[in-house]
Amino acid sequence: MFKEYDVIVVGAGHAGCEAAAAAANMGSSVLLVTMNMETIAQMSCNPAMGGVAKGQIVREIDAMGGYSGIISDKTTLQFRMLNLSKGPAMWSPRAQNDRKRFAEEWRLALERTPNVDFWQDMVSSLIIENNKVTGVKTSIGVEIKAKSVVLTNGTFLNGLIHIGEKKFGGGRTGEKAATGITEQLTSLGFEAGRMKTGTPPRVDGRSLNYSLMEEQWGDENPGRFSYTNVERPTEKRCCWITYTNSNVHETLKEGFEKSPMFTGRIKGLGPRYCPSIEDKINRFAERDRHQIFVEPEGWNTCEIYVNGFSTSLPEDVQYRALIQIPGFENAKMFRPGYAIEYDYFPPTQLSLTLETKLIENLYFAGQINGTTGYEEAASQGFIAGINAHLKINEKAPLIMKRSESYIGVLIDDLVTKGTEEPYRMFTSRAEHRLLLRQDNADIRLSPIAHALGLISDERLEIVHQKIANSDHIVAFTRKQGIEMTEANEMLENLNSTPLAQNVKLFSVLSRPQVGIEDLRKVSKSFDEYLNAYDQETIEQAEIKIKYESYFLKEQEIVNKMQKMEDKDINPDFDYSTLGSLSKEAREKLLKIKPRTLGQASRISGVSPSDISVLMVHISK
């Protein structure tokens, strides 16, 4: 019935979809196994993509030929570039999406991808021979052989849903949990843990009074995630903002004695940076209100996502608190919020390729590794799918560097440091974030993707042209001058010191207060010159001009750090023979088995003196 596949992907969430697409587009035969073909790429939580640091990840996936950015652009309700008041390293794209169309577009994209097959069933166990995965077994007794397997089980592994004092098995509301895999893996020596996440109630948008809320529109001239010219919706939809109050908080407190989080019925740790409303009230008792984002679920539905009101309190308490929020006085609830507890596997049990250390050709990606968020999951699935293909074809693995991508930071953090709570990406986690901007993801990563066969020659040529054109603009500003009489009135209006002499455009543009558009208004020659270039290229040139000295300094730091990253360590190195290492360092190094000296230096508990000892032995 089944042929032997190159790659079997278990789970069709964001990680599974990107894994299947990546491996298939590189030439592998792929089977995507999901418990429900109708929920492929389901947005289980909020109907949005991107955000701070997450938006950078989506752009990186797109730059390398992944689908997340394209699907998001096709289904966007509104688009916003966050943090524009800060430097470009902090600019983060975010889109509100149509939940149903997002899933539909993902399924269509996969069905149109050659080499991807589908099977609806639950994988109950793996087929393992001589510490090597060779296939999967399903709940109806089907055995399917494969050269590699990628597990992307999301919140389904022994998932347990909590609403007040009620609890029942499930991987998502209305869907059953997945069983068998955790038990098998722990019997093989894997360490497992429990985590939890939550979701807010959904309400009927027709029952809300939007006049009591603040409108939140997207950007007037919206950007995009994808570097391709994918067709996007021309219309936009509004979101709204409202706030909780002391009455809401007091009502919620009435249910605390029945809260599974406070009574200890939930053992897993929840996401620190996306807490439930009851957790917010408990942790931030001094605050008399919390922000609530009122987000439409799509173009053709009245369902509303109540972002900021995630809860697992009893449904009657949820409702009584909800109707005390301004604008929600007559709200009708579609379904209550809930918490879900699920199994994960500490990611220190993986190599930087996301292959497990215990079982060859077995890869983990997404929430099974302790992360939270569609974007974090999608990026892991993408890399796991690539590496599964490379491994079975006996090619060198793809290991993303911290200095070249947020994806590299994410995977290095997980594998090297591990996580005991749901991991979420932030710009602060990337020490080289000035180099890892959302605007240059194509410049950073397209050559890598092209070498892997994931993007075309034509697409790489577009990137090369973008680099050349932005360099031409920079060169023009270095040689083209501007007179005091042209610039000084504009500079005074911008609270910038007037010129004392005629200078080059580059000098004026280097000032933080002055933008390219300001100069175009006063320099006709500059304005005419820029008419030949698109806005994205002009923006790239402006960033290069303003941050040139910072980029050079940052690159020097990267080059120095690269010396440690280039010092490879044999994965079979016996650290127990090095008596001069601290006991903690020996234990951690034996567990993590770092690939390079640089990775070893980031392991918690490994001190600089331990690294010095390692450096001496590696040099020998």
UniProtKB/TrEMBL annotation:
It is found in: Cytoplasm. SUPFAM superfamilies: FAD/NAD(P)-binding domain (SSF51905). The keyword Protein biosynthesis does not apply. Its cofactor is FAD. Residues 545-616 form the tRNA uridine 5-carboxymethylaminomethyl modification enzyme C-terminal subdomain domain. InterPro entries: FAD/NAD-bd_sf, GIDA_C_N, MnmG, MnmG-rel, MnmG-rel_CS, MnmG_C, MnmG_C_subdom, MnmG_C_subdom_sf. Keywords: Cytoplasm, FAD, Flavoprotein, NAD, tRNA processing. GO terms for cellular component: cytosol. GO terms for molecular function: flavin adenine dinucleotide binding. It comes from the Bacteria. NAD(+) binds at residues 270-284. GO terms for biological process: tRNA methylation; tRNA wobble uridine modification. FAD binds at G11, A12, G13, H14, A15, G16. Homodimer. Heterotetramer of two MnmE and two MnmG subunits. NCBIfam families: mnmG_gidA. Belongs to the MnmG family. NAD-binding protein involved in the addition of a carboxymethylaminomethyl (cmnm) group at the wobble position (U34) of certain tRNAs, forming tRNA-cmnm(5)s(2)U34. This is tRNA uridine 5-carboxymethylaminomethyl modification enzyme MnmG.
